[in-house]
Fold this protein.
Amino acid sequence: MKIACLTGIRQVEIREVPLPRITAPDDVLLRVEVVGVCGSDMHYYRMGRIGSQVVEFPWSVGHELSGTVAEVGAAVASLKVGDRVAVDPLIPCGGCDQCRAGRMHTCRKQKFLGCPGQASGALAQYVVMPAGCCYRIPDSMSMVLAALVEPLSIGLYAWRMACAAMAGGRAPKSAAILGCGPIGLSVLAAMKGRGGAGTAAYVTDIRDNRLAMAARFGADWTGNPHRQEVAGGIIEACPEGLDVVFECAGQQETIDQAIGLLAPGGALLLVGIPEADRVEFSPDTMRRRELRIFNVRRQNECVADAIELAAGDAARIESMATHHFELSRVKEAFDVVADYRDNVVKAMMHV
């Protein structure tokens, strides 16, 4: 079969490898249909690493996938050949303290598709996954939308964390999303679709096309920091500060903005992945306002609800997929995303 492999910094090629085989009774063989190009893939493409996770070339990336069941293991009863599925790319061990506590996303022995040294990526014609990671999708759902379920489930998890941080688990009255690429837009879609219709949403980005999309997703205010003083604009609209800020850009500048925007007792949710090894916080502001910081790690059992959310808002959520490529054009697709060319929001690989 064909598989896309990183072979060096900003180098990728299509190779032929043997077809993967089912080795466990609860596994399924998936024919990969569509794979979204994620920002974390671009970290590996541009830098060869995310923190301590360093690529040993050649390596395959990709984890936002939809597929069709091609074969099932002997113990699989929940799926059959021909089923169309969205996939949770995290394979937990099921037995460690984190898994037993319901925190499979921090499993101590986890394997994640495309993560160096863990599980080979989804930019391949076939992958083998545990049946428990595969979720049937409605007949009406496109394979593109099914691949978008993965980033949408991260947005949904971040939104749930934000609500849990509020007194009584209520929806925040006000929130900012700093950076509205696919993850920021996914947070916004989850917010407006899951109890935050009345939450005032302030959204920033340095690309106007993404701000226009955020407005279509329900943002109440948008601002471009290259053309205006966004922090001042948000505070003018909400002078007492915000309940929650979702930092989705992974930049020191937006982290600093987030700290300044929060009301006393507010919550900062770090969703974006910084390329830098270290970031800084202002302890004076944080201490005086007693701000809380939460790290958002993947999707934590939110895939099924994300499928329902996507199905109920299909046209809007699928509009995030602005660019489409065949697998043979993987190098072109990666360069478009890595360099933010052609107003790309989300590029989709049709395998």
